[in-house]
Automatic annotation (TrEMBL):
Name this protein carries in UniProt: AAA+ ATPase domain-containing protein
GO molecular function: ATP hydrolysis activity; ubiquitin-protein transferase activity
Cited InterPro entries: P-loop_NTPase, RNF213
Native source species: Rotaria magnacalcarata
Length: 455
């Protein structure tokens, strides 16, 4: 028994040493927290891609799945790599695919044909195409059963390229039996505090003058969020109602307001307001978090003193600052959504509306729309995103998956302009400019929110 424990410890220590060595040579985006999920994801992807072992990463949004894949792809550039450590390795070429409930076996086969063309190109002996199948979980829900073609393409002994599947949930075992399955677990309370601290430090570094904030605020918010997740596990109807992206947005909003409004508002006021903005909804997580935050911060006497902002105040702040996350507003019925739409249009100039079509020529069957209609809508969104308008969207569920990076505000800067990737179909992407003051609001009826995956 003692020998088994010693061998286990030796292997764990060896893996941790190699992981640290690899991460030491990796260039990370500014403000990236080196938490356990990110380090594990990078290490497994590095090993699997270079050895042509297909891998599927499954975990809730915000567990660094897509981030880890982008980091590995951006660092392993063969002889063009910044680090000597990677210059003797193949150059990784991303072959992206956007999974959706409408994708087909034919489009998945075209994906592999595209990867094959990279391998067949003359003079490209030092490149390794990597298929990045984003939202493979959504593709698994397609009535066309597109994942059936993966079995023959992902045989470990004959696989010629890297394959990375990314999903928010675990797929059926039969769909994953040709791949390595990597589970991305929920972070511990210490990891939440570490990540929150890293986000806070990154925002403070962007300031030209020295600014100090109370670091205990973000630590107490992390502890409160951990309590919320533990609470929701006992209530299955709200289990995944809030996630890590809500938490990250909360920390960014609180720290940003503490930097800019420290002379105007008390930290407690800022926290209460940001909790309402990021954790309101069908289940009011903001009140639960406020009580837990006050408990951890020893502010129990303020629980009933600080009132949450009202709906119009939250709308006004989001549309005025335009720096936070885009909004999804949930209404009990279409009448309420009509009222909200008119209210926003009346109080905010330069608004545009896009409403899903019910015309026979646009709809194929039920909620499935023609490719021409989807492309036309996406082109409208691209044109609007280049301006400073507020875009209001309703009944557009069929194209929300194409706007994954836009909704996540996964922007990069090129030539002093924000750029974002938009998928026009499963195989074709376009980098489009996003105006600094562009803002998006999605209106969803409550019954649709409960029945479908939210955007």
């Amino acid at each position: 028994m003692q020998n088994v424990i010693s061998i286990s410890k030796f292997l764990i220590d060896l893996l941790e040493t190699e992981q640290k060595k690899l991460i030491g040579n990796i260039e990370l985006p500014p403000g990236t927290a080196k938490n356990r999920a990110l380090l594990d994801n990078i290490y497994v992807l590095y090993a699997c891609i270079l050895n042509r072992i297909p891998v599927i990463m499954c975990g809730k949004p915000g567990t660094s799945k897509t981030l880890a894949a982008n980091i590995v792809l951006n660092n392993l550039k063969g002889k063009r790599s910044n680090e000597l450590f990677f210059q003797n390795l193949p150059e990784l070429i991303s072959v992206p695919y956007q999974g959706s409930k409408n994708c087909t076996s034919e489009s998945v086969l075209k994906l592999f044909e595209r990867a094959d063309r990279y391998l067949g190109a003359e003079g490209n002996t030092d490149i390794l195409p990597v298929i990045v199948f984003d939202e493979i979980g959504l593709a698994d829900l397609s009535p066309h059963n597109p994942l059936k073609v993966l079995h023959s393409k992902l045989e470990t002994d004959t696989c010629k390229y890297g394959f990375v599947g990314i999903s928010n949930w675990r797929l059926d075992a039969a769909k994953m039996n040709r791949t390595l399955y990597l589970s991305c677990p929920d972070p511990s309370i210490d990891e939440l505090k570490f990540t929150a601290g890293t986000i806070s430090s990154s925002l403070l570094k962007q300031r030209t003058e020295n600014t100090a904030i109370d670091k205990s605020v973000v630590r107490n918010l992390a502890a409160a969020y951990f309590d919320l997740q533990e609470h929701l596990k006992k209530h299955s109807e709200y289990k995944n109602h809030f996630g890590l992206r809500d938490f990250y947005s909360l920390i960014k909003g609180v720290v940003s307001d503490m930097i800019h409004l420290s002379n105007v508002q008390e930290p407690k006021n800022i926290v209460r307001q940001q909790l309402a903005i990021n954790f309101d909804g069908i289940f009011d997580g903001s009140q639960f978090l406020w009580e837990k935050f006050c408990h951890h911060a020893k502010y129990d006497e303020f629980v009933e003193v600080e009132n949450p902002p009202i709906f119009t105040e939250m709308i006004a702040q989001s549309l005025t600052s335009r720096k936070g996350r885009y909004l999804m507003l949930i209404g009990e019925n279409e009448i309420i959504l009509d009222y909200v739409e008119r209210y926003i249009g009346k109080n905010k100039r330069s608004t545009q509306k896009l409403i899903g079509s019910s015309l026979p020529g646009d709809s194929i069957a039920g909620t499935t729309y023609s490719e021409q209609y989807n492309r036309r809508v996406l082109m409208d969104i691209v044109l609007h995103a280049e301006t400073s308008i507020t875009l209001i969207m309703r009944r557009m569920d069929h194209i929300y998956a194409n706007l994954y990076d836009l909704f996540n505000q996964n922007f990069h800067t090129s030539g002093h302009k924000r750029q974002c990737r938009i998928a026009f179909d499963n195989l074709n992407y376009q980098q489009v400019p996003i105006h600094d003051d562009f803002f998006c609001i999605i209106l969803v009826e409550r019954k649709d929110f409960i029945e479908n995956d939210p955007p």
